[in-house]
Amino acid sequence: MDKLINDFSYGLFFWQVIILAITILLLAKFAWKPILAALAAREEGIANALLAAENAKKDMQNLKADNEKLLAEARAERDLMMKEAREIKDAMIADAKSEAQAQGDKMIENAKAAIESEKNAAMAELKNQVSSLSLQIAEKLLREELSNKEAQTKLVEKMLGDAKLN
């Protein structure tokens, strides 16, 4: 440190102060304004970026709210469509049941009618067979009774007597 103090020169100091003052004046005249303008522009850009970020945040919140609203509307519409589909399904099932019931009733009625018809046909056939059998039996009995001349005469007299009474 001693060496620095011993080597101190007033002339060199004077010139260094002059050069520093000139440098400060040149910087003040030519460099400070652009530097300050750049700093102001940067500050304004940062402020604009923050404002834009805030606006973007608000827009995102609005979009999110709109999306939630649309999603709620879509869910409500889906629920309505599902309800309508269930109602249509229930109506179709009810219609199918009633139609099946009607067809079943119709088939039962047709079956009853067919059974009654078959029963009547069987009864008629049975009556025909019974009458045919009765005629055959009567014919055999009459032949047997009419084979004898005396029995034939008795039968004719009896029939004539019955005919007169009627």
UniProtKB/TrEMBL annotation:
Gene3D superfamilies: F1F0 ATP synthase subunit B, membrane domain. The keyword Transmembrane applies. It comes from Flavobacterium ardleyense. F-type ATPases have 2 components, F(1) - the catalytic core - and F(0) - the membrane proton channel. F(1) has five subunits: alpha(3), beta(3), gamma(1), delta(1), epsilon(1). F(0) has four main subunits: a(1), b(2) and c(10-14). The alpha and beta chains form an alternating ring which encloses part of the gamma chain. F(1) is attached to F(0) by a central stalk formed by the gamma and epsilon chains, while a peripheral stalk is formed by the delta and b chains. F-type ATPases have 2 components, F(1) - the catalytic core - and F(0) - the membrane proton channel. F(1) has five subunits: alpha(3), beta(3), gamma(1), delta(1), epsilon(1). F(0) has three main subunits: a(1), b(2) and c(10-14). The alpha and beta chains form an alternating ring which encloses part of the gamma chain. F(1) is attached to F(0) by a central stalk formed by the gamma and epsilon chains, while a peripheral stalk is formed by the delta and b chains. Keywords: ATP synthesis, Cell membrane, CF(0), Coiled coil, Hydrogen ion transport, Ion transport, Membrane, Transmembrane, Transmembrane helix, Transport. Pfam families: ATP-synt_B. It is found in: Cell membrane; Endomembrane system. Belongs to the ATPase B chain family. The chain crosses the membrane at residues 12-32. Component of the F(0) channel, it forms part of the peripheral stalk, linking F(1) to F(0). The b'-subunit is a diverged and duplicated form of b found in plants and photosynthetic bacteria. F(1)F(0) ATP synthase produces ATP from ADP in the presence of a proton or sodium gradient. F-type ATPases consist of two structural domains, F(1) containing the extramembraneous catalytic core and F(0) containing the membrane proton channel, linked together by a central stalk and a peripheral stalk. During catalysis, ATP synthesis in the catalytic domain of F(1) is coupled via a rotary mechanism of the central stalk subunits to proton translocation. It is a single-pass membrane protein. This is ATP synthase subunit b. Residues 46-143 form a coiled coil.
